[in-house]
Design brief:
alpha+beta; about 20% helix; Aminopeptidase; about 80 residues; 1 helix
Length: about 80
């Protein structure tokens, strides 16, 4: 194993499951990818930015990863870097 995977995300106030986040290995190109999914009813609350920053910090500082990539569907404009 690579020492990482996906985590469940819970909203503090309601303790409800909001999505998941973590790292995957992109097979065929051997890249470490940050991946997350926020349930539709919990989107546009800033959770994606908050969890992405925390996960990247963990990857670089704790796991000592040298490179992390991110992929997004073209139609998901909210996840695009501009």
């Amino acid at each position: 194993m690579n020492g990482f995977g996906m985590w469940a995300l819970f909203e503090k106030e309601s303790n409800s499951l909001t999505g998941h986040c973590g790292f995957n290995i992109l097979h065929g190109i051997s890249e470490t990818e940050i991946a997350y999914l926020i349930e539709k009813k919990h989107r546009v609350k800033g959770y994606a930015a908050e969890i992405a920053k925390a996960t990247l910090d963990y990857g670089f500082k704790i796991l000592d990863l040298k490179r992390i990539v991110a992929l997004a569907y073209p139609q998901n404009e909210a996840s695009q870097c501009h």
